[in-house]
Every structure is written in structure tokens, then in C-alpha cells.
Automatic annotation (TrEMBL), chain A:
Coatomer alpha subunit C-terminal domain: residues covered: 856-1205
Organism lineage: Eukaryota, Fungi, Dikarya, Basidiomycota, Agaricomycotina
Subunit comment: Oligomeric complex that consists of at least the alpha, beta, beta', gamma, delta, epsilon and zeta subunits.
Designated name of the protein: Coatomer subunit alpha
UniProt keyword S-adenosyl-L-methionine present: no
TrEMBL record, chain B:
Keywords: Cytoplasm, Cytoplasmic vesicle, ER-Golgi transport, Golgi apparatus, Membrane, Protein transport, Transport
Name of the protein: Coatomer subunit epsilon
Family recorded in the similarity comment: Belongs to the COPE family.
Single Gene Ontology BP annotation: retrograde vesicle-mediated transport, Golgi to endoplasmic reticulum
InterPro entries membership: Coatomer_esu, TPR-like_helical_dom_sf
Major location (coarse): membrane
Chloroplast is among the record's keywords: no
Domain of life according to the entry: Eukaryota
Cellular component, GO annotation: COPI vesicle coat; Golgi membrane
Known function: The coatomer is a cytosolic protein complex that binds to dilysine motifs and reversibly associates with Golgi non-clathrin-coated vesicles, which further mediate biosynthetic protein transport from the ER, via the Golgi up to the trans Golgi network. The coatomer complex is required for budding from Golgi membranes, and is essential for the retrograde Golgi-to-ER transport of dilysine-tagged proteins.
Subcellular location: Cytoplasmic vesicle, COPI-coated vesicle membrane; Golgi apparatus membrane
Length: 1209, 310
């Protein structure tokens, strides 16, 4: 609370009374000159003035819920005013006091007004009946103040008689005691003095109740402030606050905090701690004595009246300290650092900063470091302090961590993180910026190049320095100024999400700059700017005292919504503004970003987006049209306008002839056609010109146009029209244009201009016509002897048409072919696809289904096929190299030459893992092979070569951070958080999941009958599985399942391939073919594949006339519940089998005894018969194959002893 | 205090923006920045595997030891693999001996450059001990420290590297190069999940005063190490767009595609490209060495005949 934050100040006559409006930003001030002023303190304007009192006005108060104001003055009168602008007037005047009225107040719920007066009485009035309903007598001197209790039926009064009195007015509520004026005696019975508080040595100027506690504060001419406590039965003095050195005019409890605010004739306002009764702060004025104080009932706002005006002030900054990281807001409320997740709205307290700085002052700024999860908080008490604390991980139940436990403190005005492990501190007094590391030791000191008041993060290795007249981008490393911009003192700095743009906010301006400050634009606001945040699309949203507005990077700005109370924007996401209100509670505001999105799209020429907005939103209205026109986009504006006149104007402006013609037809006024003709002529579109002339019957111009375009045919038509119209002048013109001499002569004759007609005929050699003319004129050739004979006229002919342009219009640049015309013309209004708008509000991209076909989906559901029960030994075998662990505790060595190489990471990997895959990744192929041989009996490694190399290749990478040195060889670890040499392991190049996906691919190949593809895939699955890294029992189980599944499918595919080959090569060997088909159905396949196997077997048996066998497969088929078509076929086969229960060909197939299939010979090995197995896949073989290479995957030695996979986890 | 242009040049060099350094205009030959700038340009050429260009830009008649050293390094790199390397290393040794004498002509900073260049050459030749000796155990030249630290790291002694780093922290303030050194150590030790390296490169990507695809590659590699494969891929792709033919980026891209869920063809395709275009890249050399090793190891197992029905 080092400063009193003045929000508003006005100059006037002495202010004796003040009152805040409870909801609106209005303040009433009663002046010594008799006037009552009504100020809007937020906008700083005088709203109204009430001037009916004669002499000074001392008392003023607003009605808590109605638009009423009560005032009382030295004219003994109490006036009640309607303050609504349209009906503002004095509603009534209460007469009764016999001396100056000192204070007035409305009751919070009853229609009562309390007034105090120098006539030593307190009166309570009913504002409905306008009667005095009680007179409280007892004070023996002027009553200086009197107020209702905020809840109880009590009144507290202060008097020059040196007492403070508490009155019980509960009697007033019971019935209506007072029916008429005049009967004073009855009053006293309803209101009695409850307590008389004596203790002040001089007259008491003011006494007030605490809003919630049973406390009273009083201010007196004995220069003290006294605090009194009361119980049900008594009241007593608690303590005094001494410090004012002249009369104390007024004292109030702070409505929210444990503070007392007082003012006095010693020209000071003082703040006291209510608990300790000590002075916390003093604000002094040079000239003016303070006379009155008022507190806003809800807000942290006070007003004080003095000799030459009033001030409105705050005692603390309301702007909460906050920082935003991605979708998390870190902020301080009630001295707790809290985090708020804007997606889940979870709001948790993380850290207490109660013990940091002055207890009366909330932290000023907060800077968050995501890398270290640390916060840096500053407070302005004690000339600026900062504290660096790490936030606890997650929220632990119970006690919240206190920052004093491990916080690192220091002095400094601003403190911000500048890098993951550095922060900068500004010491304003010494003008020194220190860069400190996380242990709070100085690593660098910088002397800023300008007088710096505030520092902000300026991008990597940079600071933004705010000085009085400029803002500087400063490079810390290089210690030099990169750029500066002239600006009023910058108070806040907000970076956009990708750090490319920054908003520098001052009191009334916002400068939007790029990250090097090389480009910037300015937004100016007359109203105080409070806060701002970037929209993800690059629009800056900011809040002023009463609006949320947007600003585009080129400087355009506009209003988004109006605010009742200021808010502090923290994050803008889609259509939601996240903000903190004045009491630091997170709030959201939903708004419509259409307008600025449109403007932004216009700015970026993003027509798709504009089109989308045009189509989907109701963005219309004069403002947007005017905006478009003003910005030089009439053609776009055209699409918004319905009004034909405006459309016509816009169309002319942008030269869109089609629209112009269309609208001109609709309007059909001569002046429109004329203007259209002009514009069309300019564009060379003579067809439109023609049309316009026709519409306006402008025959002369029309004829000339036809002449100009060489349209002789139309010219002759014009002649006829002229004939019809009987307009000789027009006929003459047309015949002249058309080169029609006879026509011309005819016109001249018709109008009686014989001489001209004669001469024309004569000079064109039409002697016969000339004769006729002479005749018509009743003359003979002799009469015209004196006419000199003219030379034969070279006929005036229209120029020859070289290229007929009559049907061509002058080519124009396809101005009309813009995006909008096309999109809007073809009516694809619904077709518009919403452009991906980065702000996250675009209807989230449809849940992208994995591109699995139905088949694969089936797999998913049947994934958990029978877990192998054959007790495969996965138990951990002690591997001898596991305990060969030698801890390399190197002796302390001096730096420099002679350093011996340490163990390679690859050696560590080999040491740390018994898995072949890890050894392969480490490049230790030999040991990997030994492992595979021992664990799974692999003997043939050649097929694994590509796999080995690609795993090795993917486990190492290189980087040359220092020029020209051989690159660092980097080894990719499985778990990046594990760096202990005895635990590091190589990355798992092939995850089990990936192999299982490949397996599904194999299933698909199988069902689409690409058997050799499927065979290839199943083989590669089995190969790859050898080098999958397993980390848990669960994975080991899955691994085994996958191996088994792949084996069964591979076996099945092999059998089926064999059957097809038999059918092809030895078509007579039906028996073998039938056997193989039958065995295929004994591979463990999933239901959909089993259906395929059974149907195939059923078909083959049916064809071979083994009806009984076919029927048995059909029955098994029915058990798998196939679809209805298959069911029908199956039933037929069963019926056939019943009719003819015999098999034509006998085969080796006993389906009733369980058997395995030898994977080499494809013959059954019935239970109980001897068999050998593949050490890896556990495929069965006849004993004769022991020691051979397995034919399924060509990797293992059949029947070899193997230990199984170890379980190192 | 170096001038701001030189500072900038140095910063770009340190962060691997070699092409930008080469594109800089040389200051006036009389300027004190002339020789250092020329040195950085020559070193940038060498770093971009173009030692001939480095030799070309150095005037032939120079008497400056540092310039001589850079020419020697360029020739050494150029001659890599041939028999001449020994002679060139000898030349380097002569130069490093020369500066130890009381030669009034060369300045302290020239001497430091010579040590760094000679150290680099020795390290390239695998003469670790000699390199460390030349660079000096108590050097106060950060560039030398960077080389020393990388040498320690390459012989798997991150403990010594860290010690060297801690030592230089005392006098090097908060220099960018020091941060790079710290980040390099992090690359090897993987402390805190490579967070230090990752944030260093992320920060430098946001640095307004330079752009370099090398940083992108470096972050891509860091992200591979952090098992953030899709992110790594996007970094590397971006870097490849800026420098089509960078072996290191391509090699890292091969690794990233090999690890990710991507199609294997993509990985094989870039691998083939790397094989064809950069046959000397350590990854290629390593893998082909491993292929031989595989054959050798596999041959130790006796493969029985395949089981078939006779």
C-alpha cells in the first residue's frame, strides 16, 4: 500500500458530503456552495447537478436499490431526488429540522431516512408517507452524524457533546406508531438510547458501524479515532488510534479488510490496522483539509472530500498477479498462488505467499517458469521485493506449501524469468538489472541504456525495458539495444502464443509489434486500458474499464462487448474469454468473434474464411459495408447488400456490369441508365451501352454508337425507326451515317429543303432525282442555271468495316471473376467447408477413425484368442553376464591430457539387458545371436540380417554441436528420464503393438485370399517378434499369444497353399487334397477365418462326393454362427449328408481324436504319439525331423533345447 | 569487448548458422574485426565440409598465425584419408609451438584461435591426448572449453566434461557458448530427460537475431533422444526443407522414421539417399561395419538342412 491509487479527481467548491451509488459508477458530492454534483467517476464526467438547496449542502446518500438521492443542507431541508435523467427532479422536501442538517441516510430495507441536525436531534422519516416517524433526543449538542446499522435495528450517532450514542429503534418496526405529525411525545417510546459511549475529550465528528462485526469507529476533534465494541448488554472502548494532528473529520471501517480509513483537517488521509491499531499509511495533501470520507459498499473504492474538490481512490491494486502457461492460469488470490485449468475449470491453491512482503499488500506480479515449475512473485512493499519458489508437484492434500519455506528472496522492483534457469531483477533506484540463476546468485549485471521503470520478457535472451517515453528491446547477452519504440510508459506486455507478436500496453495506448520491434502499430483508447490477451488467430483482445475490444495487427479495432466491471483478460480460446474479476476469481465471457475474424480474413485475403463467415453468420449491417467500401473492397461489400440502389452504386464502383445491369433494370430510372451507359462505355461494353441508350430512348447516341461499332444493319433499323418517329433530323443523321444518299435526298425533299435536296442529288449524279425535285419545286432546269455546277461529290460514306465489332465487346480484365462471384453465383451456400480456424472453435475434426476395415475390426474384438497353455518357460534364467557387473568407480582424475576413455553407452546397454533386441541395438550382434540361440534355439540368422541392421540403425544418432569436430555419437534410450549408467537401456525400436498391427495385416491378406502375401507377412511377424523388447509379464503374455497366433496362421496358410499345389500338380490325388483341407480346419484360427477354412473344406468334400464329411464340416460351420447365406448352404450340405451319409474317398482324418499337425509333412500327430517341437514357435513335428531347420520360418533347429525368454523386469 | 558485428558473427557460428556467417560481408581489412570475421567464415566453410572454399578466401600472403592455422586445418580436412595428413598435422604442431614462444606479433586472441584449430585437428585425427594438451587444462577461452568438453564426451567421460564446465562457469559469465556446452553435456548424460538441451535449443529457435536449420536439427535429435518421435520428425523435416542435403539432418531423419510408427518405406528411402549421397557419414560407416560383423557372427552357427518330406 505504498501508494494511494487515485482513480478520479475533481476540482470544485469545498466538498462536505459524499455518497457512492451501490451499483453504478456514480458518486454524489454535496458542496459548500449549495450544489450537489453527480459524477461518473469511471468516465470522469459530471452527469448531473442538483441546485435547489440554499446554502451549503452537507448530507447526501443514494437509495440502495432505487434511483433516489437524499440530500440535507444548511437550509434545514431534506430533499429527495429522482436521479433518472428523463425524470430528474426533486420529488419532495422534508421539513422539520430546526438547524443545519449534517448527515442523511436511507435505510437498507425499510422506507426510512435518518437525518441528524445541529438542532441536537436525530430524526427518522418515512419516505413513503413523507412523515417524520421518530425523533431521537438526548444529545446535548450538534449531532454530527447518524447512521443505521447495516443489519440490526440500531442507530449510531456522534455529537459535539463528546459522546457517541447507540440507539435501539426496534420499536419502530412494530406497527406504525405514528399516524400524524405533531404528537412528539409518542416518538421517544419507540426509540431509546442503548449505550452512551464516553471517552472522547472533544466533540465527535463521525461514528460508524462495522459492516459485519459488533464494532464502532468514531472520529473526533480530540484528534483521535476510537474503536468501540458492543455486546448485547454493554459497549466499551477498545482502543484509540492517535496520529492525526488536527480534528479528525471522518473514520470508516474498510468493507473488506481489517483496516480503518480516516481523514482530517490536518490534510491527511490515514490508514490504520484494525487489529494492531497502528498507522499503516498516510497520504498528505498540500493545501486542502479533508472533510468527509465515503466507502463504496462493494468495491475497493473510497472517496474523500476536501477544501477544493474530491478524490476517488483505491487502497490497493486490484489487478491480480497472474501468468498464463498454455491452458493453465497461475494467479494470486488472497495471497495464495493458485492454478486454474481453463479446460477443466479446476482451481487449486498451490502456494501461500502470506508471509511475503507487507501483510496489507497483495503481490504485484507473477512470472511462471514451466521448465522448473517455479514462480517468481513480486510485491511493491519495502521498495519492491521478489521471491522465487517452486510450486509443489500436483496438489497434495491438506496444508498448502508456504513460500517462506524454501523461497529465495531479494529486493527488486520487477522480477521475471528470462530463460529456463535465469531470471532478471530490476532495481529501480540503482538502475541495475541483475540476471540471476535459480540459486539466486547473480550471474550478470546490466546497466540499462534508459531510465527503466519496469522490465518484461522480451523473447529469447531479450528484455523489454519500459521507460517514461519509450520502450526498448534489449539483448541481454550482447548488452545492447536492439530496437526502441516511442511510447508512453508501458505497464503490461503480452506475447502471443508463438512469440511472434507482442502487445505493449500503456494507460491509453497499445502498441502491437513483431518480435524484433521492426514493425508496429498503435491503438489509442480514451478509456483506461486494463488488460489484454491474444486470440490464437493473432488478434489482440483487450479490456478497458468498460469494454472488451479487439485490435488487429495493422491497428483496426472495435468493440466486442460492454462490461459492468473491469476484468483482467487472461486467455482467449475460441469464443470464450477467460478472465479474472476484481476479486481475482476466474470468469469466462462468451463472445462472437465473427466481426474481427471477418476483418482479419479480409486483411489476409483469406477468401475461403470470409466466404464461410458470410454464409454462416448474420454479419450484415451498414458498418461492415462501410468498412468494406472504405477499405477498398466494394466487390465484397456487394455480397452483403440487398438494397438495389446501394447495390447499383457498389456495382458501378467496382465495375461489376452484370450486377449493375440487373439492378438498373430493377430500378429503371433514366439517371441510372445514363450512369450505367457512361460506365459501360468506359469499359468498352457497347452492348450494355446500347441497352442503356435503348432504355432511355437516346436515339442520337444510339445511332452514333452503331456507326462507331460498324453495325450497318442496326443503322438501317434506326433509319426505319426515325421514319416511324417522323423525326427528319434523326432520319437525316441516320442516312448520313449509313451512307444512304438517296435516303438523305428523300429527307431533304420531305422537309421541303429542295435546294439542298437538288444539289445533293445533282452532285451525287442522281440527275433523274434532281429532275424530280425540280418538278416538285415547280421549276425548270433553266431556273437553276445560275447555280454553279459543283464537282461530283465524293460520296460521304461510313468507313469500311474491317473487323466487325458489332458482336464483340471490348475485352476486360476478368474483374468480375472473383472468388465470391464464383462461390456465391453457383449457389453452393451449403457446400462451404469450414476452413480450419486455428482457434480451436472449429467443430473439432471428425473423430478420425483408424483406417481399419471391417475385417480388422473383427480382429480387435477377438484379439484375446486362447492363451497358450503349454507352459512355455518364460521364467527368468540367471544369465551369467548379468552378475558380471563391474562398477567402474574411477579414481579422481585431473582434468586435461591423459584422460582415459570411459565406458561406451553401448557397453552399458549390453551389460544392463539380457534381451537379444537390446544387444542388437547396442551393436553387439555376436552376443545377441548367442542369446537368441540359447533362449529360442535360433541357428539360421541370415533372414534376420536386415532386421538387425535396421534396429541398430534406429538406436543411434549423431550431432555436431561444435564445428568441424567429429559428431557426437548419441544413443537413444528407452526411458529418457533414466540416466543412471546401471539402468540405461536402448530404445525399443520395434514395439509389440506395431507387430500386432502387422499381424492384423496378415489376417486381412488371408481373408482376401492373398495367401502368399499372408505367408510372407506371418513369417515376418515371427521374425520381428524375436527382437521385440518386453517390459512386463503382461507384455510377455501378449508376446506369446502373438507368436502362437502367427504360427497357427502360418501353418494354416502353408497347408492351404500345399493343397492348392496338390490340386494343380496332381489333380488325381484327391485324397491328399481332402486331407489337407480337413487339416486346415484344425489350425487355431479366429472365427471369421475359421469360417473360410470350413467353407473351403465343405466345398472340397462336397465336390469329391464325400457328403458325410461335408456335412460334418457344415455342422461345425453352423456352430460358428456365420451369416444367413452361409447358413443356408451349410444346411443343404447337412441335408445332403443325411440323405447320403457316405464318403466316396477314404482319407486319413480322425476328427474325434485331438491332434497336432506336423508343420513339415502336414500330417496329423495324434495325441499320445511322439513329437518334437520348434524351440521358438512350439510348432509340432514328427520325431524324424529332429535336428533339422524348421520349415515354417527357417530359423530354428527343430527339437533344440532352449531356455525361453528371460524376464528382466 | 568485441564489437557487436563480431559478436553476432560469433553467435551465428556457435549456433551452427554457418551459411549465414559465410554470407556476411567482410569488414574492411584494416578493421580489427577483419581477421576474426575471416576466420569464422573460413571455419564455417570447413564446418560445411567445403575446406577448399576456406583455403580460397584466405589471402595467400597472410602472416597471421590464426589464419595460417585455419588454412592448415582446411587442408587437413581436405586431405582426410590421404597420406598427407601426417605432414599437415606436423604443420599444426609447428604452429602451436610457434605461439608458445615469445612472439610479439600474434595477439592473445590469435593464439587462442590457433589452439582451438589445432585442437580440432588433433581431435579429428583421434589424437585425444595431444588435443587436450594443446587446448590447455586451464584455458580461459570458451571455444577451447567447448572443444575440450566435446572431446571428453566423445571418449565417454561426461564426468570430466562436467568438471570442465563447472570450472569455466566461474569466469565465463552467462555466455551463449557456455549454455551450448552445458547443453552438449546434457545430450550425453541425458540428465532430467534431456530437458536442459531441449529448452536450450527451443530457446534458441526463438532467438530473434538468427535462424539456422542446424538448431532445428539439433532440437530434432534431442527430441529423438526424448522419444518424442513425431515432434522430432517435424523438426527434421523443416530443417531438411531449409538445407536439402545436410547429412546430419538426413541421418537423424532416418533414425526418426525408423522409430516412429511411419511406414518403413519412408525410412528405407531416406536411408538409401544417405547411403548414396553421404557415404562417409559415421552412421553409414557404422552400419556397413555392423553388416560385416553380422555375417561373421552368423557364420559361427551351423545351419542344418530344412526339414522336408523326403
Amino acid at each position: 500500500m505504498s501508494v494511494m491509487l487515485t482513480k478520479f479527481e475533481s476540482k470544485s467548491n469545498r466538498v462536505k458530503g459524499l455518497a457512492f451509488h451501490p451499483t453504478q459508477p456514480l458518486l454524489a458530492a454535496a458542496l459548500h456552495n449549495g450544489s450537489v454534483q453527480l459524477w461518473n467517476y469511471r468516465m470522469g464526467v459530471l452527469v448531473d447537478r442538483f441546485e435547489e438547496h440554499e446554502g451549503p449542502v452537507r448530507a447526501v446518500h443514494f437509495h440502495p436499490s432505487r434511483a433516489l438521492l437524499v440530500t440535507g443542507g444548511d437550509d434545514y431541508k431534506i430533499k429527495v431526488w429522482d436521479i433518472r435523467p428523463q425524470t430528474r427532479r426533486c420529488l419532495f422536501t422534508l421539513h422539520g429540522h430546526l438547524d443545519y442538517v449534517r448527515t442523511v441516510q436511507f435505510h437498507h430495507e425499510m422506507p426510512w431516512i435518518i437525518s441528524t441536525s445541529d438542532d441536537q436531534t436525530i430524526r427518522i422519516w418515512n419516505s413513503t408517507s413523507r412523515n417524520c416517524i421518530a425523533v431521537l433526543t438526548g444529545h446535548s449538542h450538534y449531532v454530527m452524524s447518524g447512521f443505521f446499522h447495516p443489519k440490526d435495528d440500531l442507530v449510531v450517532s456522534a455529537s459535539m457533546d463528546q459522546t457517541v450514542r447507540v440507539w435501539d429503534i426496534s420499536g419502530l418496526r412494530k406497527g406504525s406508531p405514528n399516524t400524524g405529525p405533531g404528537n412528539f411525545e409518542t416518538f421517544d417510546t419507540f426509540s431509546t438510547v442503548k449505550y452512551v459511549l464516553e471517552g472522547h475529550d472533544r466533540g465527535v465528528n463521525y461514528a460508524a458501524f462495522h459492516p459485519t462485526l459488533p464494532l464502532i469507529v468514531s472520529a473526533a476533534d480530540d484528534r483521535t479515532i476510537k474503536i468501540w465494541r458492543m455486546s448485547e448488554t454493554k459497549a466499551w472502548e477498545v482502543d484509540s488510534c492517535r496520529g492525526h494532528f488536527n480534528n479528525v473529520s471522518s473514520a470508516l471501517f474498510h468493507p473488506k479488510h481489517e483496516l480503518i480509513v480516516s481523514c482530517g483537517e490536518d490534510k491527511t488521509i490515514r490508514v490504520w490496522d484494525l487489529a494492531k491499531r497502528t498507522a499503516i499509511q498516510t497520504f498528505r495533501r498540500e493545501q486542502d483539509r479533508f472533510w468527509v470520507l465515503a466507502a463504496h459498499p462493494n468495491l475497493n473504492l473510497f472517496a474523500a472530500g476536501h477544501d477544493s474538490g474530491l478524490i476517488v481512490f483505491k487502497l490497493e491494486r486490484e489487478r491480480p498477479a497472474f501468468a498464463v502457461h498454455q491452458d493453465t492460469l497461475f494467479y494470486v488470490r488472497d495471497k495464495y498462488v493458485r492454478s486454474y485449468d481453463i479446460n477443466s475449470a479446476s482451481d487449486i491453491g498451490l502456494l501461500s505467499v502470506r508471509k511475503f512482503g507487507s501483510p496489507y499488500m497483495p503481490p504485484r506480479t507473477l512470472s511462471y517458469n514451466p521448465a522448473e515449475r517455479a514462480v517468481l512473485v513480486t510485491v511493491s512493499s519495502d521498495n519492491g521485493l521478489y521471491e522465487l519458489t517452486s510450486l509443489p508437484q500436483g496438489s497434495q492434500g491438506g496444508e498448502v506449501k508456504d513460500s517462506s519455506v524454501d523461497g529465495k528472496k531479494g529486493t527488486g522492483h520487477s522480477a521475471i524469468f528470462v530463460a529456463r534457469n535465469r531470471f532478471a531483477i530490476l532495481n529501480k533506484a540503482s538502475q541495475l538489472i541483475e540476471v540471476r540463476d535459480l540459486s539466486n546468485s547473480v550471474v550478470k549485471s546490466i546497466k540499462p541504456p534508459v531510465q527503466t521503470n519496469e522490465i518484461f520478457y522480451g523473447g529469447t535472451a531479450c528484455l523489454i525495458l519500459s521507460s517514461t517515453s519509450s520502450v526498448v528491446l534489449y539483448d541481454i547477452q550482447q548488452q545492447k539495444t536492439i530496437a526502441d519504440i516511442n511510447s508512453p510508459p508501458v505497464k503490461y506486455v503480452v506475447w502471443n502464443s508463438d512469440g511472434s507478436l507482442v502487445a505493449l500496453m500503456s494507460k491509453h495506448t497499445i502498441t502491437i509489434a513483431n518480435r524484433t520491434f521492426s514493425e508496429h502499430s498503435l491503438i489509442h483508447e480514451t478509456i483506461r486500458i486494463k488488460s489484454g490477451a491474444w486470440d490464437d488467430a493473432g488478434v489482440f483482445l483487450y479490456s478497458t474499464l468498460n469494454h472488451v475490444k479487439y485490435g488487429l495487427s495493422q491497428g483496426d479495432h472495435g468493440v466486442i462487448c460492454t462490461l459492468d466491471n473491469p476484468v483482467y483478460l487472461t486467455r482467449v480460446k475460441g469464443k470464450t474469454i477467460h478472465c479474472l474479476d476484481r476479486s481475482a476469481r476466474p470468469r469466462t465471457i462468451t463472445f462472437d468473434p465473427t466481426e474481427y475474424r471477418f476483418k482479419l480474413a479480409l486483411l489476409k485475403n483469406n477468401y475461403e474464411e470470409m466466404l464461410y463467415i458470410i454464409k454462416t453468420s448474420t454479419l450484415l449491417g451498414q458498418s461492415i459495408i462501410a468498412y468494406l467500401q472504405q477499405k477498398g473492397f466494394p466487390e465484397i461489400a456487394l455480397h452483403f447488400v440487398q438494397d438495389t440502389n446501394t447495390r447499383f452504386e457498389l456495382a458501378l464502383e467496382c465495375g461489376n456490369m452484370d450486377v449493375a445491369v440487373e439492378t438498373a433494370e430493377a430500378i429503371d430510372r433514366t439517371d441510372c441508365w445514363e450512369r450505367l451507359a457512361q460506365q459501360a462505355l468506359k469499359q468498352g461494353n457497347h452492348k450494355i451501352v446500347e441497352k442503356a441508350y435503348q432504355r432511355t430512348k437516346n436515339f442520337d447516341k444510339l445511332s452514333f454508337l452503331y456507326l462507331a461499332t460498324g453495325s450497318t444493319e442496326k443503322l438501317s433499323k434506326m433509319q426505319k425507326i426515325a421514319d416511324a418517329r417522323g423525326d427528319p433530323m434523326s432520319r437525316f443523321h441516320n442516312s448520313l451515317y449509313a451512307g444512304d444518299v438517296k435516303g438523305r435526298i428523300a429527307v431533304l425533299r420531305d422537309v421541303g429543303m429542295y435546294p439542298l435536296a437538288y444539289l445533293t442529288a445533282k452532285t451525287h449524279g442522281f440527275d433523274d432525282i434532281a429532275e424530280e425535285i425540280l418538278e416538285d419545286a415547280s421549276l425548270t432546269p433553266a431556273d437553276v442555271d445560275d447555280v454553279p455546277s459543283f464537282a461530283q461529290a465524293t460520296s460521304v460514306k461510313p468507313p469500311q468495316v474491317v473487323t466487325s465489332t458489332a458482336d464483340l465487346v471490348w475485352p476486360t480484365i476478368s474483374a468480375g471473376e472473383n472468388f465470391f462471384d464464383r462461390a456465391l453465383a453457383n449457389g453452393s451456400l451449403e457446400g462451404g467447408v469450414e476452413p480450419s480456424y486455428v482457434n480451436g472453435d472449429a467443430a473439432a475434426a471428425g473423430s478420425a477413425m483408424s483406417a481399419l476395415d471391417d475385417w480388422a475390426k473383427d480382429e480387435e474384438t477377438h484379439e484375446d484368442i486362447d492363451p497358450e497353455e503349454g507352459g512355455w518357460d518364460l521364467g527368468a534364467e540367471e544369465e551369467e553376464f548379468q552378475d558380471a557387473e563391474v562398477e567402474e568407480e574411477q579414481p579422481e582424475e585431473e582434468l586435461g591430457a591423459g584422460a582415459t576413455p570411459g565406458p561406451d553407452e553401448r557397453e552399458l546397454w549390453v551389460r544392463n539387458s539380457p534381451l537379444a533386441a537390446d544387444h542388437v541395438a547396442a551393436g553387439s550382434f555376436e552376443s545377441a545371436m548367442q542369446l537368441l540361440n540359447r533362449q529360442l534355439g535360433i541357428v539360421n540368422f541370415e533372414p534376420l540380417k536386415a532386421l538387425f541392421l535396421s534396429i541398430y540403425r534406429s538406436s543411434h544418432t549423431y550431432l555436431s554441436p561444435v564445428a568441424s569436430l567429429p559428431p557426437l555419437h548419441l544413443h537413444i534410450r528407452r526411458n529418457p528420464t533414466e540416466s543412471s549408467p546401471s539402468k540405461v537401456l536402448p530404445v525399443a525400436v520395434i514395439p509389440l503393438k506395431q507387430v500386432r498391427a502387422t499381424l492384423s495385416e496378415g489376417y486381412r491378406a488371408l481373408s482376401s485370399n492373398k495367401l502368399s502375401d499372408a505367408q510372407e507377412i506371418f513369417r515376418s511377424v515371427l521374425k520381428t517378434l524375436l527382437l521385440v523388447v518386453l517390459t512386463s509379464d503382461d507384455e510377455a503374455r501378449q508376446w506369446r499369444e502373438t507368436v502362437t497366433a502367427a504360427r497357427e496362421y502360418l501353418l494354416g496358410v502353408n497347408i492351404e497353399l500345399e493343397r492348392r499345389q496338390v490340386a494343380e500338380v496332381e489333380p488325381d490325388n484327391v485324397r491328399r487334397s481332402l486331407e489337407l483341407a480337413a487339416y486346415f480346419t484344425h489350425c487355431q484360427l479366429q472365427p471369421p477365418h475359421m469360417i473360410i477354412a470350413l467353407r473351403s473344406a465343405m466345398a472340397v468334400f462336397h465336390k469329391a462326393n464325400n457328403q458325410a464329411g461335408a456335412a460334418r464340416f457344415a455342422k461345425r460351420l453352423l456352430e460358428t454362427k456365420p451369416d444367413s447365406k452361409v447358413v443356408a448352404v451349410a444346411r443343404q450340405r447337412i441335408a445332403a449328408g443325411e440323405r447320403n451319409p457316405r464318403d466316396a474317398i477314404e482319407i486319413t482324418y480322425d476328427e474325434y481324436t485331438p491332434f497336432d499337425i506336423c508343420a513339415a509333412s502336414y500330417t496329423p500327430i495324434y495325441r499320445g504319439s511322439p513329437s518334437v517341437h520348434c524351440p521358438y514357435t512350439d510348432a509340432s513335428y514328427l520325431p524324424q525331423f529332429k535336428g533339422k531347420l524348421d520349415p515354417l520360418i527357417n530359423l530354428t533347429e527343430i527339437g533344440a533345447v532352449a531356455s525361453g525368454l528371460p524376464a528382466p523386469w | 569487448m568485441t564489437s557487436s558485428e563480431l559478436y553476432h558473427t560469433k553467435q551465428q557460428f556457435i549456433l551452427g548458422a554457418y551459411q549465414s556467417v559465410i554470407n556476411l560481408a567482410l569488414p574492411d581489412p584494416s578493421s580489427s574485426d577483419y581477421i576474426p570475421t575471416l576466420l569464422y567464415q573460413a571455419r564455417s566453410h570447413i564446418a560445411l565440409h567445403n575446406p577448399k572454399a576456406a583455403i580460397d578466401i584466405i589471402p595467400e600472403d597472410n602472416a597471421n598465425v590464426a589464419l595460417k592455422a585455419v588454412v592448415a586445418l582446411a587442408r587437413y580436412i581436405d586431405a582426410a584419408g590421404s597420406s598427407e595428413t601426417d605432414n599437415l598435422l606436423e604443420e599444426m604442431r609447428d604452429l602451436s609451438v610457434e605461439i608458445e614462444g615469445d612472439d610479439a606479433e600474434s595477439t592473445e586472441s590469435d593464439k587462442a584461435y590457433v589452439r582451438v584449430l589445432a585442437g580440432t585437428a588433433f581431435a579429428c585425427a583421434g589424437e585425444v591426448e595431444e588435443a587436450l594438451e594443446t587446448l590447455g587444462a586451464d584455458t580461459e577461452d570458451l571455444e577451447a572449453v567447448a572443444v575440450i568438453v566435446q572431446i571428453y564426451l566423445s571418449i565417454n567421460r561426461p564426468d570430466l566434461a562436467k568438471k570442465e564446465y563447472e570450472r569455466s562457469k566461474r569466469w565465463a559469465e552467462d555466455d551463449l557458448l557456455l549454455q551450448l556446452i552445458e547443453s552438449n553435456i546434457g545430450l550425453i548424460t541425458g540428465k532430467d530427460g534431456y530437458s536442459n538441451t531441449n529448452s536450450f535449443y527451443t530457446e534458441q529457435l526463438g532467438n530473434p537475431s538468427l535462424t539456422s536449420p542446424h538448431i532445428l536439427t539439433a532440437r530434432g535429435v534431442t527430441r529423438i533422444l526424448r522419444n518424442e518421435i513425431p515432434e522430432a520428425k517435424s523438426d527434421l523435416e523443416e530443417s531438411l526443407q531449409q538445407q536439402k542435403n545436410d547429412a546430419e539432418t538426413l541421418a537423424a531423419y532416418v533414425v526418426a522414421t525408423g522409430l516412429g510408427p511411419a511406414k518403413k518405406d519412408e525410412s528405407e528411402e531416406s536411408w538409401t539417399r544417405l547411403l548414396n549421397e553421404h557415404s562417409t557419414h559415421p552412421l553409414v560407416v557404422e552400419v556397413s561395419g555392423k553388416a560385416d560383423l553380422f555375417d561373421e557372427a552368423a557364420s559361427k552357427f551351423v545351419v542344418p538342412p530344412v526339414a522336408t518330406v523326403a
